[in-house]
Amino acid sequence: MHAISFIQDLAVIMLVAGVVTILFHRFKQPVVLGYIVAGFIIGPHTPPFGLIHDEQTIKTLAELGVIFLMFCLGLEFSLRKLFKVGATAFIAAFMEITLMIWIGYEIGRWFDWNTMDSLFLGAILAISSTTIIVKALNDLKMKNERFAQLIFGVLIVEDILGIGIIALLSSIAVSGSVSPEEVFSTVGKLSLFMIVALVIGILLVPRVLAYVARFESNEMLLITVLGLCFGFCLLVVKLEYSMVLGAFLIGAIMAESRQLLKIERLIEPVRDLFSAIFFVAIGLMLDPVILWEYALPILVITCAVVLGKMLSCGLGAFIAGNDGRTSLRVGMGLSQIGEFSFIIAALGMTLQVTSSFLYPVAVAVSVLTTLMTPYLIRAADPLSLKLAQVMPKRVSRVLGMYGEWLRSIQPQGQGALLAAMIRKILLQVGVNLALVIAIFFAGGYFAPRIAEYLQGWMIKSSWQHGLIWGAALLLSLPFLIAAYRKLKALSMLLAEMGVKPEMAGRHTQRVRRIIAEVIPILSLLVIFLLLSALSASILPTNELLIGIAVVAAGVAAVLWRWFIRVHTRMQVALLETLDNHKEGGH
Amino acid sequence: MHAISFIQDLAVIMLVAGVVTILFHRFKQPVVLGYIVAGFIIGPHTPPFGLIHDEQTIKTLAELGVIFLMFCLGLEFSLRKLFKVGATAFIAAFMEITLMIWIGYEIGRWFDWNTMDSLFLGAILAISSTTIIVKALNDLKMKNERFAQLIFGVLIVEDILGIGIIALLSSIAVSGSVSPEEVFSTVGKLSLFMIVALVIGILLVPRVLAYVARFESNEMLLITVLGLCFGFCLLVVKLEYSMVLGAFLIGAIMAESRQLLKIERLIEPVRDLFSAIFFVAIGLMLDPVILWEYALPILVITCAVVLGKMLSCGLGAFIAGNDGRTSLRVGMGLSQIGEFSFIIAALGMTLQVTSSFLYPVAVAVSVLTTLMTPYLIRAADPLSLKLAQVMPKRVSRVLGMYGEWLRSIQPQGQGALLAAMIRKILLQVGVNLALVIAIFFAGGYFAPRIAEYLQGWMIKSSWQHGLIWGAALLLSLPFLIAAYRKLKALSMLLAEMGVKPEMAGRHTQRVRRIIAEVIPILSLLVIFLLLSALSASILPTNELLIGIAVVAAGVAAVLWRWFIRVHTRMQVALLETLDNHKEGGH
């Protein structure tokens, strides 16, 4: 019977993992390391040999582990948190990722590894491990200190950027090359997809979950959550993105639901089960012979991770205006790699673009850096004191002045309010445009299939295209109108600020009005040009286009108020979901 | 990538199951039926075809579902509950199972099915569905009525008997025949195994769990629980019992741990996930063509289940002393088959002894009877009133008199106390003897391997046997001494009761003492003969036996007090675990 050998595998995994993790816990090491060591012990490369029979099924379950890990990461992530993390997180995460990818790539080249291996090594080193850091800060009881909060902010930004890296790597691995246009188009499409998925998801998913939750059956809620999770992952895979991205996104969407706490409680045991299998499966792949062979690269990369992350994150935190001690603690806290690195290394293996040694090397570096993490965090404070002593007075005064200068140039009072308003308007315009672009993309994507249906009573393909394009435009109208109104508000604001009576004298009002009218219309024109370019495949002939534009203008004029009402209602629903949650006492 | 088609399967299963179960829930039908229907919809036999790609992996996960279902059944089961359920449950369950196996077998033969199919059909019909009944009584808000409590008692006894049926069927399927000796030896070995597993398990497992629970990590507790569960299942499989039995037993053992509530909370989502897959996998196998072809048997069997269970359980409850109305309600509440039937049907399929139609037929009967369950429970009360009206006065008076007579012969006051004491002593003697027998069995089982080790310095195999047998006897001494002491207490009690001064006159004391001494020694002799027979494979020569007996007697005499102390300590530990739990507020 097939099932018995499978149960045997599970029994061995769980028993060995149980014993080893208990040992690791006693010696205050992260449980994750225990799993990897357990996998190493029962793996085929170390005695006793061959305790696992059905490696294929175990690997399939390990992939489920990745999905649940990312899903739970998404659940813990939340848009509100992202909006709150502030400049430090963005600057530090961005510096870290850029620098680490570059360092990793250079190290790979220096060891004469091929381009793809080097590139993946860079990506592997880019992102720190949320699991390990949370565990270490918990153990050290430092979770509530300021630097810990900054670290959590950096981790949130890293998650989003990491998702982008995975999408980029997949596309690069398939095309085999890196061109700036490609990077741009991948990042653009990815952002578009993420915005659209988040907007539609947050409008729909929490409502579905609230409906199911009314039945007060844990079982049904769990099945619904799993169905949505796997279903969305599948959709994402069909769109040729990674499943990991899908799991994270649907997690982030569900994080906005009122049932978040319950979902977390239900999904946690499932995640623990499958993530244990995932980490054990990592250990299964470790071969001491390979590790020994690559001892030098492993050591070099480990040093690079610790020093590189200390430097990049620390510098990033400092540039964003933190004092030296906090910056150093942020940098040293982030000095390790973990689950994200495994996922990226696994991606390279499944896409068959990286060499087989890369995965074990990544695991070894992760194990070493993880072991060092608690010591690094503890050493940060004494080290900063020592540095302050050793540093020449002048340097430290210059550094101190930088912080003061930074605080002095930050907009305050009315200025800060204005900046916040402008940011908010730009965000709204951006979201609306993303939805419009998505509608046109979808039109282009489904055009051949729609054309088939239309074949019966509309033979000319230009007419078909005209119809599809027109429908897309009609659907987009509420969002376009909303974008137009926001842009108008923005231009009025800018005109008010930019055109002072001292300059324009008695023309002030007129100049302001012209600016306030011209900017939104110009923007709309640009948007239409962009849309035409993006929907080139279904763009109708010019005559038709004019006809459509006239019809659309007519519809817009007639239904202007209705469109605004529809859009407002949707916006309110979206914001309610985001706010409701806040009331939920989280 | 293999994983994607697997994720797709999971997505389809969860999405369809989610939607269908929500619909079923709205129409107040059990979720389990929703899963089966969902499986039927996405199955290969109904349009749209082929929504499942990787049926093998799904089936493997479905087997995990069975394990988790039985494990949770074990968690809800508890020895204390079993001791409490009283005569009604035992009589009703025993009557139900015997009658239903016979009815099922006869129906099978009547349809000209072969012996094995008929036998499995009987077993499939034997056991009612805990899941369905709990759900229906919950929905009808009748959970706390007296007849519901009786039903739960019957279900607990059924679980134990069902486990026995599974073990019996496995052994019959392998040997291909049913002989009374075989049934006897299978049941004997099974009881022995269960007692020993429960005693050792309850001594060890709760302690392990308490140790792990001190780390306050849900993850580690879950992994430990799963490790113990799968590990024990594996052990049970190695002893050639069914995994189902193992899962149930380890669940029953963990039910005695203080961490029960936490374990249940952790394991529930995992069970829900896998049991959903299990029930969907059942639906996958349904083929409308086969169902249509076997429409007549399905209808006949459905009627047989409803009427047979009504009659057997109702009669059983009545015989045990309940009034007619309660008995009828008990009988009609138990009138369906469910998850146990699927497990037995699956057993027949994996052992390849039953025809392929049996499984779908069982599922169809389960679906029909499940649909009827709530209506039957509701109809029981009106029906009992109607029956009372229709019934001739004489018959109802006779029935009423039976109840009164039954109450009159029940031991009361001192008599009841005495009966309880005797029951308790017999139970203790039984457990001790089971442990002794298990020690000798283990000695026989491991003898060849031990003999290999001994080969070096002890060549004669008779000496080797002598050593092993002697060691087994030595290990058994504490239990033998305990059994002897309990037997002595029992005989004193019996002598006190049986030999009255009116009969024996002035010899009363002497006769009593003789009886009190003779009975335990005679019993010990019988026990030794039994042990010799059971350990025939390692029984040493007669001379050696005498030598061993002398040594053992010497050791027993010298260490008498120490043995008693050791045994008492173990007994206290066992009872503490059983009692501790009660304090735990469950």
UniProtKB/TrEMBL annotation, chains A, B:
Which locations, inside or outside the cell, does it occupy? Membrane
Q: Where is the Cation/H+ exchanger transmembrane domain?
A: 14-376
Q: Which UniProt keywords apply?
A: Antiport, Ion transport, Membrane, Transmembrane, Transmembrane helix, Transport
How does this protein sit in the membrane? Answer: Multi-pass membrane protein
Task: Name where it mostly resides.
Answer: membrane
InterPro entries with a match to the protein in the record = Cation/H_exchanger_TM (IPR006153), Na+/solute_symporter_sf (IPR038770)
Q: Where are the transmembrane segments?
A: 6-24, 31-52, 58-75, 87-107, 119-138, 150-172, 192-213, 220-237, 273-292, 298-320, 425-447, 467-484, 514-538, 544-564
Q: Which Pfam families match?
A: Na_H_Exchanger
So what family is this one in? Belongs to the monovalent cation:proton antiporter 2 (CPA2) transporter (TC 2.A.37) family.
Q: What is this protein called?
A: Cation:proton antiporter
Query: From which source organism is this entry?
Result: Pseudomonas saxonica
